[in-house]
């Protein structure tokens, strides 16, 4: 079973700029520290709302898992992130991510990585860079 990995604060901020408003269990507080959902019960919540603090940039950001971002990119931005593993004569190798823009079929591959999560994180970074240019 794959471990659920949460994105870092830089990616969380970039996703917020792209319109990520999905409920999550974790968030980055004003100091940039990763926090779990408040209270004893696990509730999904959009943590991107600005807090009542003075100064610019005083904001919390939702911290979704890699798989939640992958799903959001597919549903909202029409970008498919597919993870592949190299195989050569029954020897399994490294992972890589293929980014496919569903609107026109544009396809890009990331560099090979040792783990599934690293390949998916690279694909998400590449997708954010592609969306930021548009």
Secondary-structure content class: alpha+beta
Largest pleated sheet:
3 strands, antiparallel
Q: Mean pLDDT, as a whole number?
A: 83
Q: Provide a count of the helices.
A: 3
* Strand ordering within the main sheet: 2-1-3
- The succession of helices and strands, N to C, reads HEEEHEEEH
- Poorly predicted spans: none
DSSP strand content: 15-25%
The count of β-strands is 6
What is the terminal separation in angstroms? Answer: 36 Å
- Helix amount: 25-40%
Rounded to an integer in angstroms, the radius of gyration calculated over CA atoms is 16 Å
User: Which descriptor suits the 3D outline?
Assistant: globular
Secondary structure layout plus pairing:
Layout: H1 9-17, E1 26-28, E2 34-36, E3 61-62, H2 66-76, E4 79-88, E5 91-101, E6 107-109, H3 116-133
Antiparallel strand pairs: 1-2, 1-3, 4-5, 5-6
Q: Would you mind describing this structure in some detail?
A:
The protein has 134 residues and is an alpha+beta fold. The protein has three helices and six strands. It has helices at 9-17, 66-76, 116-133; strands at residues 26-28, 34-36, 61-62, 79-88, 91-101, 107-109. Strands 2-1-3 form a three-stranded antiparallel sheet, covered by helices on one side. Helix 2 runs parallel beside helix 3. The mean pLDDT is 83.
